[in-house]
Amino acid sequence: MQASGHLRFLVGTYTDLPSQSRGIAQVGLNQQTGELIRFDDYYPLRNPSYLIQSQQQTYSFSEVAQQDGAQLVCLDGQHTHALPIAGDYPCHLAISADKKYLAVANYGSGNVRIYLLDSQGIPLRSVADLFEEGQGPNRDRQQSPHAHQVVFQQTEPVLVSVDLGSDAIRFYQIENGTFTLAQQLAMPAGCGPRHLVFNRAEDKAYVVCELSETLVVLRKTEQGWQVQQQLDLLPDADKGEAAAAIKLSDDERFVYVSCRHQNAVSCFDVSGSEVTWLSMTDAGGLFPRDFTITSCGEWLIVANQHSNNLVSYRRNEITGSLEASGYQCQIDAPVCLVEQHN
């Protein structure tokens, strides 16, 4: 959304940490200079660590245990609709292409909960609960499943779940309201897949693996999805099991990944048959949990959780390189950034 020459963004935050944040914050970006401006908060909510928008609604949740009141929240500007979440520590949301379903990934309990939406996009009730047993070799992080992301494909009725705890990516076929596991792709042992992005054709995907701090490239074949390539996020850098967000540029030429341990954003060239690492850019703060590329493609904004700041970068759309604008904005424990469009 643009107002007075600014793009507006919603910011998910943690409120339970030593934090002055009270819920979903709101900032503006000056498209000429990169200046970031803090606006009034959008909505008070406990630990709204992830959020998405449709044309009609804004969706978020409280990232807490089920017994502490984990809830799914739907905001339409006039009303608030809330449902309890049957899962612990929800961490990701997605809406199906036909706008019928909303999926929630629950990191703590490892399950994916599916909610039916009405014609206005309001969640009505839970209609499916997806859970697969599994674990990985990392004893501290992989004793059980940890669903970290859900994605509805746009070209076919498929829900994808990324499971950090089981080193697995699962593809569920959706037919007549039933979600059936069609493929479980085993990822490299101990890699801890966190998030993925598809290209528009949805025949290639890029996965950021939190624990191994690698980028894994997947390709769709007649036999299903397969691992094609694996690269370190930051060549020759010390690792800290803390890779985070991943984004694909709109022209599908560059992939960016945030590296929390190294306080950096890594850039890859994905335009050729093989993916190659290009560069790293200092995140301008500590523990870059999330970032976003603006709809115009000219800017990238980083949310640094531990230094409580957002930082803007001018993005070279030809080379993919990032240049700090010199502007930042103070927000306590920012962990999610979404460009506002309603």
Poorly predicted ranges: none
> Using DSSP, what is the number of strands?
30
The shape is: globular
Helix count equals 0
Main sheet record: 6 strands, antiparallel
- The SSE string, one letter per element, is EEEEEEEEEEEEEEEEEEEEEEEEEEEEEE
Written account of the structure:
The protein has 342 residues and is mainly beta. The protein is built from no helices and 30 strands. The strands form 7 sheets. Strands 1, 2, 3, 4, 5 and 30 form a 6-stranded antiparallel sheet that branches. The protein has a 4-stranded antiparallel sheet with strand order 6-7-8-9, with no helix packed on it. The model has no long low-confidence stretch (mean pLDDT 96).
Task: Produce the secondary structure layout.
Elements: E1 2-3, E2 6-13, E3 23-30, E4 36-38, E5 43-44, E6 51-53, E7 58-61, E8 71-75, E9 80-84, E10 90-95, E11 101-106, E12 112-117, E13 123-130, E14 147-152, E15 158-163, E16 168-175, E17 178-186, E18 193-198, E19 204-209, E20 214-221, E21 224-232, E22 243-248, E23 254-259, E24 264-269, E25 276-282, E26 288-293, E27 299-304, E28 309-315, E29 322-330, E30 334-339
Antiparallel strand pairs: 1-2, 2-3, 2-30, 3-4, 3-5, 6-7, 7-8, 8-9, 10-11, 11-12, 12-13, 14-15, 15-16, 16-17, 18-19, 19-20, 20-21, 22-23, 23-24, 24-25, 26-27, 27-28, 28-29
